[in-house]
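REQUEST ID: PR-0412
SUBMITTED BY: lab tech R.K.
PRIORITY: routine
TASK: structure prediction, single protein chain
INPUT:
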Amino acid sequence: MKSFAEIDIENGGNYLKLLSAVSKLSGLFSESSTPFINYRVAENIFCRSFDADNLSRSDTAFDANYNKLGIGLKTFISSNDRSSEKIAEFNQLSKELKEYSGKKLAVKLAEFRNERMELARRLYNIENSLYHIVARKDSELVLFETDYEKIDSERIKSVKERNASLQFEDGRNIYSFNYSKSTLFRQFITPKEAFKLPIEIIKDPYSLLLELFEEKEFELLPRKYIKGVDYVILPLYGRKRFVFENSGLNQWNAGGRKRNIGEVYIPIPKVIHDNYPNFFPNRDVKFNLEIPTKEIFSAKVCQDNSKALMTDPNKALSDWLLRTVLHLKEGELATIEKLDKLGFDSVIITKKDNANFNIDIMKTGSFESFNQ
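STATUS: complete
OUTPUT:
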Protein backbone atom coordinates (compact mmCIF):
# COMPACT_ATOMS: atom_id res chain seq x y z
CA MET A 1 0.00 0.00 0.00
CA LYS A 2 1.00 3.65 -0.34
CA SER A 3 2.61 5.39 2.59
CA PHE A 4 0.38 7.51 4.81
CA ALA A 5 2.37 10.58 3.77
CA GLU A 6 1.50 9.83 0.13
CA ILE A 7 -2.15 9.19 0.99
CA ASP A 8 -2.32 12.49 2.84
CA ILE A 9 -0.75 14.46 -0.04
CA GLU A 10 -2.93 12.85 -2.72
CA ASN A 11 -6.12 13.55 -0.76
CA GLY A 12 -5.15 17.08 0.23
CA GLY A 13 -5.35 16.02 3.86
CA ASN A 14 -4.25 17.65 7.08
CA TYR A 15 -1.92 15.02 8.54
CA LEU A 16 1.36 16.58 7.45
CA LYS A 17 0.01 20.08 8.12
CA LEU A 18 -0.95 19.20 11.69
CA LEU A 19 2.36 17.44 12.40
CA SER A 20 4.19 20.48 11.07
CA ALA A 21 2.05 22.95 13.03
CA VAL A 22 2.54 21.15 16.34
CA SER A 23 6.27 20.72 15.69
CA LYS A 24 6.69 24.43 14.96
CA LEU A 25 5.63 25.11 18.55
CA SER A 26 8.48 22.99 19.94
CA GLY A 27 9.98 26.13 21.46
CA LEU A 28 7.30 25.91 24.14
CA PHE A 29 9.06 22.87 25.55
CA SER A 30 12.69 22.95 24.48
CA GLU A 31 15.41 25.09 22.89
CA SER A 32 16.55 22.13 20.77
CA SER A 33 16.42 22.22 16.96
CA THR A 34 14.88 18.73 17.08
CA PRO A 35 11.07 19.06 16.88
CA PHE A 36 9.15 17.98 19.97
CA ILE A 37 5.86 16.15 19.54
CA ASN A 38 4.24 14.09 22.29
CA TYR A 39 3.40 10.53 21.27
CA ARG A 40 -0.22 10.89 22.37
CA VAL A 41 -0.54 14.02 20.24
CA ALA A 42 0.91 12.14 17.26
CA GLU A 43 -1.59 9.31 17.81
CA ASN A 44 -4.53 11.72 17.98
CA ILE A 45 -3.38 13.58 14.86
CA PHE A 46 -3.09 10.32 12.93
CA CYS A 47 -6.53 9.08 13.95
CA ARG A 48 -8.16 12.44 13.25
CA SER A 49 -6.50 12.83 9.85
CA PHE A 50 -7.23 9.33 8.55
CA ASP A 51 -10.52 8.73 10.36
CA ALA A 52 -8.99 5.75 12.17
CA ASP A 53 -10.30 4.27 15.41
CA ASN A 54 -8.07 5.27 18.31
CA LEU A 55 -7.25 2.11 20.29
CA SER A 56 -4.62 3.59 22.60
CA ARG A 57 -6.90 3.70 25.66
CA SER A 58 -7.27 -0.08 25.83
CA ASP A 59 -3.48 -0.46 25.74
CA THR A 60 -3.54 -3.43 23.37
CA ALA A 61 -0.93 -4.27 20.73
CA PHE A 62 -2.29 -1.70 18.24
CA ASP A 63 -2.75 2.05 18.64
CA ALA A 64 -5.18 2.56 15.75
CA ASN A 65 -7.50 0.63 13.45
CA TYR A 66 -7.43 1.92 9.88
CA ASN A 67 -9.89 -0.07 7.74
CA LYS A 68 -9.02 -3.33 9.57
CA LEU A 69 -5.31 -2.50 9.37
CA GLY A 70 -3.79 -2.52 12.85
CA ILE A 71 -1.38 0.39 13.26
CA GLY A 72 1.43 0.62 15.77
CA LEU A 73 2.27 4.32 16.08
CA LYS A 74 5.77 5.24 17.21
CA THR A 75 7.22 8.71 17.77
CA PHE A 76 10.85 9.00 18.84
CA ILE A 77 14.16 10.82 18.38
CA SER A 78 16.40 9.18 15.78
CA SER A 79 19.90 10.62 15.45
CA ASN A 80 21.60 7.81 13.54
CA ASP A 81 18.72 6.10 11.67
CA ARG A 82 18.54 3.33 14.28
CA SER A 83 16.48 3.42 17.43
CA SER A 84 15.46 0.75 19.97
CA GLU A 85 11.90 1.42 21.16
CA LYS A 86 9.56 -0.21 23.68
CA ILE A 87 6.94 -2.47 22.13
CA ALA A 88 5.59 -4.41 25.14
CA GLU A 89 5.62 -4.57 28.95
CA PHE A 90 5.25 -7.78 30.94
CA ASN A 91 5.23 -6.52 34.53
CA GLN A 92 2.51 -8.92 35.67
CA LEU A 93 4.47 -11.83 34.18
CA SER A 94 7.89 -10.87 35.54
CA LYS A 95 7.98 -13.71 38.09
CA GLU A 96 7.28 -16.30 35.41
CA LEU A 97 9.84 -14.79 33.04
CA LYS A 98 12.54 -14.98 35.72
CA GLU A 99 12.33 -18.76 35.44
CA TYR A 100 13.82 -18.60 31.92
CA SER A 101 17.10 -17.45 30.42
CA GLY A 102 18.87 -17.34 27.10
CA LYS A 103 17.00 -18.69 24.08
CA LYS A 104 14.23 -20.17 26.24
CA LEU A 105 13.50 -16.68 27.56
CA ALA A 106 13.49 -15.28 24.03
CA VAL A 107 10.99 -17.95 22.94
CA LYS A 108 8.75 -17.23 25.93
CA LEU A 109 8.84 -13.49 25.18
CA ALA A 110 7.87 -14.25 21.59
CA GLU A 111 4.96 -16.35 22.82
CA PHE A 112 3.66 -13.60 25.11
CA ARG A 113 4.12 -10.87 22.49
CA ASN A 114 2.46 -12.90 19.74
CA GLU A 115 -0.54 -13.81 21.91
CA ARG A 116 -1.16 -10.14 22.67
CA MET A 117 -1.05 -9.34 18.97
CA GLU A 118 -3.61 -12.08 18.33
CA LEU A 119 -5.79 -10.71 21.12
CA ALA A 120 -5.87 -7.28 19.47
CA ARG A 121 -6.58 -8.85 16.08
CA ARG A 122 -9.57 -10.76 17.49
CA LEU A 123 -10.82 -7.85 19.56
CA TYR A 124 -10.87 -5.26 16.77
CA ASN A 125 -11.28 -7.54 13.73
CA ILE A 126 -7.79 -6.68 12.42
CA GLU A 127 -6.68 -8.38 9.19
CA ASN A 128 -3.15 -6.96 8.68
CA SER A 129 -0.79 -4.69 10.58
CA LEU A 130 2.15 -2.31 10.25
CA TYR A 131 4.10 0.30 12.19
CA HIS A 132 3.84 3.97 11.23
CA ILE A 133 6.87 5.88 12.45
CA VAL A 134 7.38 9.59 13.11
CA ALA A 135 11.10 9.96 13.72
CA ARG A 136 12.27 13.31 15.08
CA LYS A 137 15.58 14.59 13.73
CA ASP A 138 17.35 17.92 13.49
CA SER A 139 14.90 20.38 11.88
CA GLU A 140 12.74 17.65 10.35
CA LEU A 141 10.32 14.79 10.88
CA VAL A 142 11.00 11.54 9.04
CA LEU A 143 7.93 9.40 8.30
CA PHE A 144 7.87 5.80 7.17
CA GLU A 145 6.08 2.47 7.54
CA THR A 146 7.65 -0.83 8.48
CA ASP A 147 6.59 -4.39 9.20
CA TYR A 148 4.54 -5.29 12.25
CA GLU A 149 4.66 -9.07 12.39
CA LYS A 150 4.81 -11.71 15.06
CA ILE A 151 8.20 -12.66 16.41
CA ASP A 152 9.28 -15.80 14.56
CA SER A 153 10.11 -18.07 17.49
CA GLU A 154 11.35 -20.80 15.13
CA ARG A 155 14.09 -18.54 13.77
CA ILE A 156 15.36 -16.94 16.98
CA LYS A 157 19.15 -16.62 16.85
CA SER A 158 22.10 -14.46 17.93
CA VAL A 159 20.97 -14.62 21.56
CA LYS A 160 23.19 -12.49 23.77
CA GLU A 161 22.81 -12.40 27.54
CA ARG A 162 24.01 -9.33 29.40
CA ASN A 163 23.78 -8.26 33.05
CA ALA A 164 20.76 -6.05 32.49
CA SER A 165 19.22 -7.34 29.27
CA LEU A 166 18.80 -10.08 26.69
CA GLN A 167 19.22 -9.45 22.95
CA PHE A 168 18.05 -11.70 20.12
CA GLU A 169 17.01 -11.72 16.46
CA ASP A 170 14.37 -13.58 14.47
CA GLY A 171 15.71 -13.11 10.94
CA ARG A 172 13.70 -9.91 10.44
CA ASN A 173 14.25 -7.71 13.48
CA ILE A 174 16.50 -7.22 16.49
CA TYR A 175 14.88 -7.32 19.95
CA SER A 176 16.10 -6.68 23.47
CA PHE A 177 14.51 -7.36 26.85
CA ASN A 178 15.22 -5.30 29.96
CA TYR A 179 15.15 -7.60 32.99
CA SER A 180 14.41 -5.04 35.72
CA LYS A 181 11.57 -3.31 33.85
CA SER A 182 10.21 -6.47 32.16
CA THR A 183 10.09 -4.47 28.93
CA LEU A 184 10.60 -5.69 25.37
CA PHE A 185 12.24 -3.39 22.81
CA ARG A 186 12.59 -3.61 19.03
CA GLN A 187 15.12 -1.87 16.82
CA PHE A 188 13.64 0.39 14.13
CA ILE A 189 15.77 1.33 11.12
CA THR A 190 14.95 4.42 9.04
CA PRO A 191 14.96 3.56 5.31
CA LYS A 192 16.69 5.89 2.85
CA GLU A 193 13.44 6.47 0.94
CA ALA A 194 11.55 7.68 4.04
CA PHE A 195 9.44 10.83 3.66
CA LYS A 196 11.11 13.94 5.11
CA LEU A 197 9.04 16.82 6.44
CA PRO A 198 11.18 19.95 7.04
CA ILE A 199 10.31 21.77 10.27
CA GLU A 200 11.10 25.41 11.02
CA ILE A 201 10.65 25.92 14.74
CA ILE A 202 9.14 29.26 15.71
CA LYS A 203 11.54 31.35 17.73
CA ASP A 204 8.88 32.96 19.96
CA PRO A 205 5.79 30.72 20.04
CA TYR A 206 4.40 32.62 23.04
CA SER A 207 3.78 35.76 20.99
CA LEU A 208 2.02 33.66 18.35
CA LEU A 209 -0.31 32.14 20.96
CA LEU A 210 -1.15 35.54 22.42
CA GLU A 211 -1.94 36.89 18.96
CA LEU A 212 -3.94 33.83 18.00
CA PHE A 213 -6.23 33.87 21.02
CA GLU A 214 -6.77 37.61 20.88
CA GLU A 215 -8.11 37.47 17.34
CA LYS A 216 -10.28 34.34 17.27
CA GLU A 217 -12.95 32.52 19.20
CA PHE A 218 -12.79 28.76 19.40
CA GLU A 219 -15.26 26.00 20.14
CA LEU A 220 -14.45 24.78 23.63
CA LEU A 221 -13.78 21.17 24.50
CA PRO A 222 -16.72 19.44 26.22
CA ARG A 223 -16.25 18.52 29.85
CA LYS A 224 -13.97 15.58 30.37
CA TYR A 225 -15.35 12.14 31.06
CA ILE A 226 -16.32 11.90 34.70
CA LYS A 227 -15.61 8.75 36.68
CA GLY A 228 -18.84 7.06 37.70
CA VAL A 229 -20.94 9.34 35.48
CA ASP A 230 -19.60 8.65 32.01
CA TYR A 231 -17.72 5.43 32.67
CA VAL A 232 -16.94 2.71 35.20
CA ILE A 233 -14.35 -0.05 35.16
CA LEU A 234 -15.36 -3.57 36.14
CA PRO A 235 -13.03 -6.43 37.11
CA LEU A 236 -13.15 -9.77 35.33
CA TYR A 237 -12.30 -11.48 38.61
CA GLY A 238 -13.66 -11.81 42.15
CA ARG A 239 -12.24 -11.20 45.62
CA LYS A 240 -8.49 -11.42 46.15
CA ARG A 241 -8.02 -11.14 42.37
CA PHE A 242 -9.22 -14.65 41.69
CA VAL A 243 -11.42 -15.93 38.84
CA PHE A 244 -13.77 -18.32 40.58
CA GLU A 245 -14.39 -21.65 38.86
CA ASN A 246 -18.18 -21.54 39.20
CA SER A 247 -19.20 -17.89 38.83
CA GLY A 248 -18.49 -14.80 36.75
CA LEU A 249 -16.64 -15.82 33.59
CA ASN A 250 -17.06 -19.45 34.65
CA GLN A 251 -20.76 -19.32 35.57
CA TRP A 252 -21.36 -22.07 33.01
CA ASN A 253 -19.39 -24.38 35.34
CA ALA A 254 -21.61 -23.80 38.39
CA GLY A 255 -23.56 -26.66 39.95
CA GLY A 256 -27.15 -26.84 41.20
CA ARG A 257 -28.86 -27.13 37.81
CA LYS A 258 -27.95 -27.92 34.25
CA ARG A 259 -25.99 -25.00 32.83
CA ASN A 260 -25.65 -23.75 29.28
CA ILE A 261 -22.01 -23.68 28.11
CA GLY A 262 -22.48 -20.02 27.19
CA GLU A 263 -23.68 -18.90 30.62
CA VAL A 264 -21.39 -16.11 31.79
CA TYR A 265 -21.50 -12.69 33.43
CA ILE A 266 -19.19 -9.80 34.23
CA PRO A 267 -19.11 -9.12 37.99
CA ILE A 268 -20.33 -5.73 39.21
CA PRO A 269 -18.78 -5.26 42.67
CA LYS A 270 -20.98 -3.77 45.40
CA VAL A 271 -18.64 -0.79 45.63
CA ILE A 272 -19.68 0.25 42.10
CA HIS A 273 -23.36 0.41 43.04
CA ASP A 274 -22.56 2.09 46.36
CA ASN A 275 -20.42 4.82 44.81
CA TYR A 276 -22.22 5.24 41.48
CA PRO A 277 -25.85 4.16 42.05
CA ASN A 278 -27.20 5.90 38.94
CA PHE A 279 -24.70 4.64 36.38
CA PHE A 280 -26.47 1.46 35.28
CA PRO A 281 -30.21 1.14 34.55
CA ASN A 282 -32.29 -0.65 37.16
CA ARG A 283 -32.12 -4.41 37.45
CA ASP A 284 -33.49 -6.33 34.43
CA VAL A 285 -33.94 -3.15 32.36
CA LYS A 286 -32.42 -3.86 28.95
CA PHE A 287 -29.95 -1.53 27.22
CA ASN A 288 -27.66 -1.61 24.18
CA LEU A 289 -24.04 -2.63 24.72
CA GLU A 290 -21.65 -1.99 21.81
CA ILE A 291 -18.46 -4.07 21.58
CA PRO A 292 -15.27 -2.82 19.83
CA THR A 293 -16.25 -4.32 16.44
CA LYS A 294 -19.41 -2.11 16.53
CA GLU A 295 -21.73 -5.09 17.05
CA ILE A 296 -24.48 -4.26 19.54
CA PHE A 297 -25.71 -6.65 22.22
CA SER A 298 -28.85 -6.46 24.31
CA ALA A 299 -27.65 -6.33 27.92
CA LYS A 300 -28.96 -5.93 31.44
CA VAL A 301 -27.93 -5.86 35.09
CA CYS A 302 -29.30 -8.88 36.93
CA GLN A 303 -28.99 -11.42 39.79
CA ASP A 304 -29.16 -10.67 43.54
CA ASN A 305 -27.87 -7.22 44.48
CA SER A 306 -27.53 -6.46 40.76
CA LYS A 307 -24.12 -8.13 40.86
CA ALA A 308 -23.98 -9.30 37.24
CA LEU A 309 -23.76 -7.73 33.79
CA MET A 310 -25.21 -10.17 31.24
CA THR A 311 -26.43 -10.17 27.64
CA ASP A 312 -29.61 -11.56 26.10
CA PRO A 313 -28.95 -14.11 24.77
CA ASN A 314 -26.24 -14.80 27.30
CA LYS A 315 -24.28 -16.69 24.63
CA ALA A 316 -23.54 -13.37 22.88
CA LEU A 317 -21.33 -12.28 25.78
CA SER A 318 -19.60 -15.65 26.11
CA ASP A 319 -18.97 -15.89 22.36
CA TRP A 320 -17.32 -12.47 22.43
CA LEU A 321 -15.51 -12.48 25.78
CA LEU A 322 -14.64 -16.17 26.22
CA ARG A 323 -14.27 -17.37 22.62
CA THR A 324 -13.12 -14.28 20.67
CA VAL A 325 -11.24 -12.22 23.25
CA LEU A 326 -9.85 -14.85 25.63
CA HIS A 327 -9.79 -17.51 22.91
CA LEU A 328 -10.98 -20.23 25.29
CA LYS A 329 -12.41 -23.51 24.08
CA GLU A 330 -15.82 -24.68 25.27
CA GLY A 331 -15.34 -26.22 28.70
CA GLU A 332 -12.01 -24.43 29.32
CA LEU A 333 -11.93 -22.36 32.51
CA ALA A 334 -11.03 -18.68 32.50
CA THR A 335 -8.18 -17.95 34.94
CA ILE A 336 -6.33 -14.92 36.24
CA GLU A 337 -3.17 -16.43 34.71
CA LYS A 338 -4.80 -16.34 31.26
CA LEU A 339 -5.82 -12.71 31.76
CA ASP A 340 -2.36 -11.72 32.94
CA LYS A 341 -0.77 -13.42 29.97
CA LEU A 342 -2.92 -11.34 27.63
CA GLY A 343 -2.30 -8.14 29.60
CA PHE A 344 -5.82 -7.21 30.74
CA ASP A 345 -8.06 -8.05 33.68
CA SER A 346 -10.87 -5.46 33.48
CA VAL A 347 -13.39 -3.89 31.13
CA ILE A 348 -14.47 -0.27 30.77
CA ILE A 349 -18.18 0.47 30.39
CA THR A 350 -18.76 3.85 28.75
CA LYS A 351 -22.18 5.46 28.98
CA LYS A 352 -23.67 7.38 26.05
CA ASP A 353 -27.11 7.64 27.65
CA ASN A 354 -29.32 5.43 29.81
CA ALA A 355 -30.07 3.13 26.88
CA ASN A 356 -26.70 2.95 25.13
CA PHE A 357 -23.32 1.81 26.48
CA ASN A 358 -19.95 0.67 25.11
CA ILE A 359 -17.55 -1.98 26.38
CA ASP A 360 -13.83 -2.51 25.81
CA ILE A 361 -10.99 -4.24 27.64
CA MET A 362 -8.62 -2.43 30.02
CA LYS A 363 -5.05 -3.29 30.94
CA THR A 364 -4.13 -5.23 34.08
CA GLY A 365 -4.64 -3.23 37.28
CA SER A 366 -7.22 -0.83 35.84
CA PHE A 367 -10.00 -1.70 38.27
CA GLU A 368 -7.73 -1.27 41.30
CA SER A 369 -6.66 2.15 40.01
CA PHE A 370 -10.27 3.13 39.28
CA ASN A 371 -11.41 2.00 42.73
CA GLN A 372 -8.77 3.88 44.71
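NOTES: The mean pLDDT is 95.
REVIEWED BY: pending
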